[in-house]
Amino acid sequence: MIKNGMFFTFNIQGLASDSLRVVDFTFDEAVSELFDLQIQLVSFEQNIDLNSQLLRSATLKIWNSGVLQRKITGIIIHFERGQTGVRRTYWRARIKPEAWVLTLTQDSRIFHQLSFVQILSILLKQDNVRSQLQFFTSHPTHEYVTQKRETNWEFFNRLASQEGIIYWFDENESSGASLVCADSYQACLQGPDLVYNPEPIFPYKESVISDISIRAMSTSSKVIQKDRNWLNPEYRLRHEDSQSGAGKRSGFNIFESYGRFQYDASGTENTRYRMQAIQSNSLIGQAVSNCINVMPGKIFTVNSHPIESMNTGWQVISVRHRGSMPQSAEEESDGGANTLSNEISFVEQDCEWKKAFFYKPLSDGPEVATVVGPKGEEIYTNEYGCVKVAFHWNRYDPADDRASCWIRVAQGWNGGGFGFMAIPRIGHEVIVTYLDGDIDRPLITGCVYNPRSRPPLNLPADKTRTTFKTKTHKGDGFNELRFDDNLGKEEIYIHAQYDMKSEVLNRDILWVGKDKISHVLGQHHLRVEDEKRDLIKKDYSLNVEQTMHLKTGENLLIVNGDEFHLKTGSKIFLDAGAEITLKAGGNFICLDPSGIRTSEIVFMGEGSPGKGTDWDGKLPEDLQPGKNKAEFQPPMVEARPELENSLCIECLLNAIKSDASVVQGESV
């Protein structure tokens, strides 16, 4: 091993420590980026298995006069055998931090009631990535966060940028490289002191910096973000953040009409992060140095610069290190000394540098899902008629009331306390779309049938029918309103499984072009508070199989055009407080408190009784529930035989004296 000056060593886990020698390398590292080490090696070994080296741990060490300056540990993602000479074979390796494995997994899933910080921790722990979390502000809990066809690393970066979280990699002597996540520059550690030296050739005995340049850029001066929370639709959910200074003029604004926040607290922070990201590169410096310890997450200090304002601390944003050790190739090299240099990008030490905002992947369009809820329920909703669904791609959540957030259901018409409402039930297949394409804001726009949830019609036979049919909750019944447009058989059908109620505040008008048939299996009550009128232009049949009660508060007036036939099986009792009169033609019988008076001519014991027309009324047609046509049942009525016997006037007078009244005959 070289003991003097700058030199490098490289080791792959499982291989001998001296089996590979470093020829040169390029090492890129930046805030909120995976570092990338590309290294060329040489070895006397010609048969190193390529596949076996992938994902193995590898370490590059930078030494200066035998003192370790820095260790870079990662995993091999690319290993290549190059040219083979007389004695040596050249190899190339590409090293990434262990967090790189998050790029290998793509997933679609939903996180519930977690903060972004908690989700980031889950992603890192899932692949055993060592990490340190250093946060100086609180991060809110989110009800519903979706990862949709993103790699875990893409998802990680999207959430981090939205929450103002930056990261870098820090090498720990005992545990190796770990991912440091922070939400402020305050997490940066103090780095090396660098002496300004304008000479391009560096002595390696001290850390120097040269070729310093500072660049200012004009940027937008204000960020305005707008959003809307449907639970508080009238609230003006709007936030803005601005920066002033040289190169910044008012009027150059970034307006985001869809800010992706639902509450003021998250809106304020989210807008601030967006402004910081826009301003991050408004003043940026570049320089060259020979210090390998200039790295993201560190603040280096410049000394001895002729411009005093430069002699201060600067925050590292990105570095490209280059190292060369041609001695490793010995006689196959062009010779020359070992070198190490880097190119640095930096900002002011107190700059809240943020990564550019990552947008969510947009929904490709509507998709289908199944309505779900708690076990044993058929309908599961909240006060707004929202439901929960299970997406077919969700591999992690059980298909129950925790499978999604509450999702609003688009209805045909709505308003303040009025409109149309039909709640999709558990098991229904629904169409889900997304507001503004946001995968975290699903909206149900309709339902579709499938072999498990079949249509309520026998199709295609019933293709002329249109129906709205419900199902009894936890039962087998249904309510239905159905229209049939089959020519010559047009029909509107209504089925009420239990009660049917109709409320009319003014007039209820019914016009029937032909027949109307009603069949009541129980009681039929009618109450009219004012006047009731009936007009029947033909026959009227009234059949009461038990007792009929008829009561009027004042007069009962019956006007009959021809015959009035009153017939009973036993007796007729007429009771009047003042008078009863029977009159036919010019003859009469009058009963009043003073006695019985008759017309002048009375034939006692002569003549025969008249005969009335027998009852020939019809019973209503019989309706059977569920049948489209009522089957007619002919009336079955028999007259009682004792009513066919003749009755004379004398018998009638005797009956009156004994408080029994029977009337039989023609008109009376």
UniProtKB/TrEMBL annotation:
The record's comment on protein family reads:
Belongs to the VgrG protein family.
Q: Which organism is it from?
A: Hafnia alvei
Q: Cite the InterPro entries for this sequence.
A: Gp5/Vgr_OB, Gp5_Vgr_C, T6SS_RhsGE_Vgr_subset, T6SS_Vgr_RhsGE, T6SS_VgrG/RHS, Vgr_OB-fold_dom_sf
One Pfam family cited in the UniProt record for this chain: Phage_base_V
Question: What name has this protein been given in UniProt?
Answer: Type VI secretion system secreted protein VgrG
Domain Gp5/Type VI secretion system Vgr protein OB-fold, residue spans: 387-449
Q: Which residues form the Gp5/Type VI secretion system Vgr C-terminal trimerisation domain?
A: 466-569
Q: Which SUPFAM superfamilies match?
A: gp5 N-terminal domain-like (SSF69255), Phage fibre proteins (SSF69349), Phage tail proteins (SSF69279)
